[in-house]
């Protein structure tokens, strides 16, 4: 089918403002034409936008579609069938919020991605990492201190399904190869301690240079790349020098480390809303004190991270990293970043830069001929009010993904 969007203000993130007088023609799953003059398309279905803002669909570069518990250890009691049923709802709600593309940063598999692509469940287009890889005792190691044997088999529960342990370069190579065999678009490594794990200090360095290098080499030879969970300057520097492509979280980054990232062309994906939401809500959802204490530590440095990266010229993508019931705050990251960054920069992080991270420049995050027809019609100007992006998408009159309307109230 073809659709002609008219009577709109076009917000292409490459510009600094929305511009009136444009029309956009969609044919099939792509944008056929964008013009400041009337487009002739007699067979197209006309969509009158009523002077609303037309912009690209949003991209969240750090989600966990399968992590349906805030206290992640509770995933041990979640069978795979229940995990997938919960994931279906999470994916639909992400699309309801205007996120037409997400990069799952550990957990989602090719089955979930295929279910979305084939139309079995509604959701954003997905770029998956497979199982998050960690060393023994690292951020992905969820064994209790009373456990003396390894985790149960892969079929047993949601916790095991989303995690992978590897020690030594050869084991890391095998783990990376396995994720890529399973259809991963990128590979996730844990290279420092984390908030949502009980026993590893934030400042711990996880994986040796040899292990990280092995992962990077294997991903590169397969045409993929490595994203890394890291908080401290030491962990970030080690990962960057080994050739990783993106740093996730990165709250404790300092100015020299940000400069190194910029020099190497490494992306940062901050997730400030995750820590803000956990501070306010995670205790009531079961997260224990030792994890909340670590959350308080990283929360203190969130805005400093944004400033260090902005000054150094590091490209920052949009990420939320919300577990379980906290997912309903996915769009609040816009407002948090908007306190210290211009609105256009925040929107670019969720469009242009997100497209770069998933290696879809020119196909996602822009409104131009040849790009995928992932489009939003917003009631108002997001550059003047980032609060227009809210849970449930109440200010989104239309959501189109791949040329098909997920929502259309016009």
């Amino acid at each position: 089918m073809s659709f002609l969007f008219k009577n709109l203000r076009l917000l292409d993130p490459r510009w600094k403002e929305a511009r009136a007088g444009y029309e956009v023609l969609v044919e099939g799953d792509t944008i056929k034409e964008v013009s400041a003059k009337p487009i002739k398309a007699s067979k197209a279905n006309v969509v009158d936008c009523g002077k609303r803002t037309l912009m690209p669909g949003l991209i969240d570069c750090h989600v966990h579609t399968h992590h349906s518990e805030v206290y992640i250890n509770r995933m041990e009691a979640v069978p795979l069938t229940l995990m997938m049923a919960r994931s279906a709802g999470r994916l639909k709600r992400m699309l309801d919020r205007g996120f037409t593309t997400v990069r799952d940063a550990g957990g989602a598999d090719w089955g979930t991605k295929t279910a979305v692509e084939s139309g079995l469940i509604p959701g954003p287009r997905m770029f998956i990492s497979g199982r998050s890889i960690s060393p023994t005792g690292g951020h992905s190691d969820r064994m209790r201190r009373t456990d003396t044997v390894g985790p149960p088999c892969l079929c047993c529960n949601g916790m095991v399904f989303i995690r992978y342990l590897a020690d030594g370069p050869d084991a890391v190579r095998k783990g990376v190869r396995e994720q890529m065999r399973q259809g991963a678009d990128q590979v996730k490594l844990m290279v420092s301690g984390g908030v949502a794990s009980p026993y590893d200090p934030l400042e711990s360095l996880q994986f040796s240079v040899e292990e990280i290098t092995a992962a990077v080499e294997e991903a590169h030879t397969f045409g993929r790349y490595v994203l890394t969970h890291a908080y401290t300057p030491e962990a970030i520097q080690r990962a960057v020098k080994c050739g990783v492509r993106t740093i996730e979280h990165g709250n404790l980054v300092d100015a020299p480390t940000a400069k190194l990232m910029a020099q190497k062309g490494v992306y940062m994906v901050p997730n400030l809303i995750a820590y803000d939401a956990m501070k306010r809500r995670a205790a009531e959802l079961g997260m224990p004190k030792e994890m909340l204490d670590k959350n308080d530590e990283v929360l203190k440095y969130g805005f400093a991270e944004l400033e260090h990266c902005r000054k150094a010229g590091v490209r920052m993508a949009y990420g939320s990293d919300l577990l379980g019931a906290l997912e309903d705050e996915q769009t609040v990251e816009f407002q948090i970043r908007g306190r210290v960054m211009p609105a256009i920069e925040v929107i670019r992080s969720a469009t242009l830069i997100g497209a770069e991270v998933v290696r879809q420049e020119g196909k996602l995050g822009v409104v131009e001929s040849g790009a995928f027809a992932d489009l939003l019609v917003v009631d108002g100007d997001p550059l003047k009010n980032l609060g227009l992006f809210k849970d449930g998408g109440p200010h989104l009159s239309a959501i189109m993904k791949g040329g098909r309307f997920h929502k259309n109230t016009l």
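The two ends are 17 Å apart (CA to CA). The CA atoms of residues 352 and 365 lie 5 Å apart.
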